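Continuing the series of single-chain predictions for the mutant panel. This is the parent chain; the variants come on the following pages.
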Amino acid sequence: MTFNSNADVSGSGAKRRGPGGGAIAGGVGGLGAIAVILLQLFTSGDFTSLLGGFGGQAAPSQETELTNCETGADANADDACRLAAGSKSINTFWSSVVQGYRPPQLIIVDGSTPTSCGTASNATGPFYCPPEETVYIDPTFFDVLEQQFGDETGPLAQLYVLAHEYGHHIQQITGTFDQYPNNGTGPTSNGVRTELQADCFAGAWVANAAQTTDAEGVPFLQAPTEDQIRDALEAAATVGDDHIQAQSGQVNPESWTHGSSEQRQRWFATGYKSGVYACDTFAVGSNL
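Parent structure:
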């Protein structure tokens, strides 16, 4: 999605944390590495050990305010700023839906940083940490996906990832995590339903993003184009459990934690077309 260049996106509250910049270390290749990267895209698990020498050593973290993000033009030009600006739109949307909404903290990770949910880095991918009510995301992760797949991860695909993690925050503050705790893996497990609901919530925000405005009434974002929606749907398909498992040659639905590519696309589309109140994935039976 494209930000309106004159929109005021300052004051997002996003912070930058880590020992400094740094891309993922070289020496990793093949489908196994890709599968692990994708596995971690929307999880809070740290699978770095599966990649051997992947990533770098953690160093004492330093935290600073994100200061280079003032206008929509800044957000269009810089990935970190785009995520920070996106958080303003997402928070504005959810504050109109959830009574008493409190925004999560957004941490833009440089290199790596410890959290109470494990190490955050471009190896572990974006995740939401419920005890901290914080979203962690390293923008260089999108560069890695582009390098591995040869296709650019467009702005809306990036914001879809962010909105998905904010969907987990909604589940945290509304009690969904407590009501539907982890009950193992499988195509109808609570874990899969949780992830598909976060996809649906992301779609609902995308549909309403162009109506969220700054203090002067300027919309943060322009309405998404068909190509941008297609980009987001392709991102959803890429992180389907069946697609990831197919990279290694065997698809096992009983081990699914996030849902198939078809499910992830369909629930994103459900939110986009029908809104938040169509996102009760826990009320659906086996035809999830």
